[in-house]
Design brief:
The chain has about 290 residues and is of the alpha/beta class. About 40% of the residues lie in helices and about 15% in strands. The chain contains ten helices and nine strands. A five-stranded parallel β-sheet has the order 2-1-3-4-5, sandwiched between helices. Strands 7-6-8-9 form a four-stranded parallel β-sheet, sandwiched between helices. α5 links the parallel β4 and β5. The longest helix has 18 residues. It is globular and about 50 Å long. The relative contact order is 0.16.
């Protein structure tokens, strides 16, 4: 069994621990009603997107999400949250070192790293760190922590996650070669992450969109060898239009974070089908460290 497969299977248990940590550290995270920003790179950026949208939807304050290399240094935020599995990602560490004014909170898998040294406060999730290059459980555990810090009860999400580990995959790995992931609100960030997972692990042709945008051009390439996959509830008309192209339409029933587990499993199955090592994708390393 690959490392990534083991790490995918551990997620519901990790979410329980992360939710406890998030609830305990609620005062460390951005205060309700205050402006905030969340930053990260790659997967962590997409988790930042999900958190920012969710926080605003819960009326807890205006929240922006940036990839760390493009995060503004002068915009006034009381608090910024940086997400980094390794704690060594150069762009994240540079942003925290250079930004002035905000209280800097880092959510990391490894302490004693450049990101934690540049932060004012650290929320460590060492139990969710990973051996695989491709992120799964750290990303979702960071989101579970943040969701609990917003006051959400993750009981149903964890139950859905356990169900997601047992569900049959909706398509056979060799039957399709095009994956489209759709979300609405906070699940848009997870749709972006879903697309990245299949690109990283299985070199797949993937796309991701806000659901209502899908009919504005991207649907033109859908067909019988496409899967259009919803993370959470999306507009029925969009899914009907996708089905009319001959594409297979799946998803939307589970908590979006749990739906991501099924997608991660799909990525591993597709990698295995293609003879690839999902733990060691080509051209990628565990962390991007720049000179």
């Amino acid at each position: 069994m690959s490392e990534i497969a083991r790490e995918i299977a551990s997620q519901p248990a990790c979410w329980r621990r992360a939710a406890e940590i998030g609830a305990q550290n609620a005062a460390t995270l951005p205060a309700p009603g205050s402006r905030a920003a969340a930053v990260g790179c790659g997967t962590s950026w997409f988790i930042a997107q999900a958190y920012a949208s969710l926080r605003e939807s819960l009326a807890q304050g205006e929240t922006d999400a940036f990839t760390a290399s493009e995060a503004p240094l002068e915009r006034p935020y009381p608090t910024v949250v940086a997400i980094s599995r390794s704690g060594t990602t150069t762009e994240v560490a540079r942003y925290l070192a250079r930004v002035r004014g905000p209280r800097r909170v880092a959510i990391v898998g490894v302490e004693g790293t450049p990101v934690t040294e540049a932060a004012d406060e650290v929320v460590p999730l060492a139990f969710a760190d990973e051996r695989s290059v491709v992120q799964t459980r750290f990303a979702t555990s960071a989101l579970a922590c943040l969701r609990a810090g917003l006051g959400q009860d993750l009981g149903s999400a964890i139950a859905d996650g356990e169900q997601a580990l047992e569900r049959p995959l909706p398509v056979e790995a060799g039957e399709v070669d095009h994956f489209v992931f759709l979300g609405e609100g906070w699940s848009i960030g997870l749709a972006n992450e879903a697309a990245l997972k299949l690109r990283e692990a299985a070199q797949a042709w993937t796309e991701s969109y806000p659901a209502m945008e899908y009919r504005h051009g991207p649907i033109s390439v859908a067909g019988p060898r496409s899967v259009v996959w919803a993370l959470g509830a999306v507009d029925d008309g969009v899914l009907e239009a996708a089905a009319a192209t001959g594409a297979t339409v799946v998803g939307g029933e589970l908590d979006p974070m749990a739906e991501l587990i099924v997608i991660q499993r799909m990525a591993v199955a597709l990698a295995d089908h293609r003879g690839l090592d999902p733990d060691r994708p080509r051209h990628l390393t565990r962390s991007v460290v720049l000179s």
